[in-house]
Amino acid sequence: DIQMTQTTSSLSASLGDRVTISCRASQDISNYLNWYQQKPDGTVKLLIYYTSRLHSGVPSRFSGSGSGTDYSLTISNLEQEDIATYFCQQGNTLYTFGGGTKLEIK
Amino acid sequence: EVQLQQSGPELVKPGASVKISCKTSGYTFTEYTMHWVKQSHGKSLEWIGGINPNNGGTSYNQKFKGKATLTVDKSSSTAYMELRSLTSEDSAVYYCARKEARAYYAMDYWGQGTSVTVSS
Questions:
Q1: Is A34–B104 a contact, with Cβ atoms under 8 angstroms apart?
Q2: For B62-73, how does the pLDDT look when each residue is reduced to its tens digit (9 = 90+)?
């Protein structure tokens, strides 16, 4: 099974900051890496698919990058509404999620 | 607008079964695979399995084989997940999520989640 690791479980940043969240796969996942946002009320939304492609309706301050086993999600110009937990998910072999990174305002 | 509306919270006794529904609207139900995801105690997400509504074909996470059964009702555009032989380990929030149509293996729309509590 492919394991997904988000080494930072929580992150504190200021409004307007640029924030980067990392995700590592236990083996090469060939860019089949997706990012999700879960709000405190439990609502889950797709942000980025296939490493860097922005899902419909997602603000352009969200971006993704990476290759092989290492991937990242960047939020430029952090806004209050971005307070959430972010999960990565690999789709190369079945589906596995990372442990999540909780983003808080400093 | 794509919408996935899940059934309400469940309180069930150990050893019992529960069936959660996910009613869809805003798209052609049979054209997208539906998946189910478990979130225990606000922690991470686990993929349970997926079903092709067009032909009823299913794939399961090995961990959930024998625990979860996925079905659909095409006439009402509704997906179901039944969990059986419930224990406290099954207490969690369960989400249905539609897999996008292309081959990127992302879940592009999610239900609001259904809380299942197993307690006597």
A1: yes
A2: 999 999 999 999
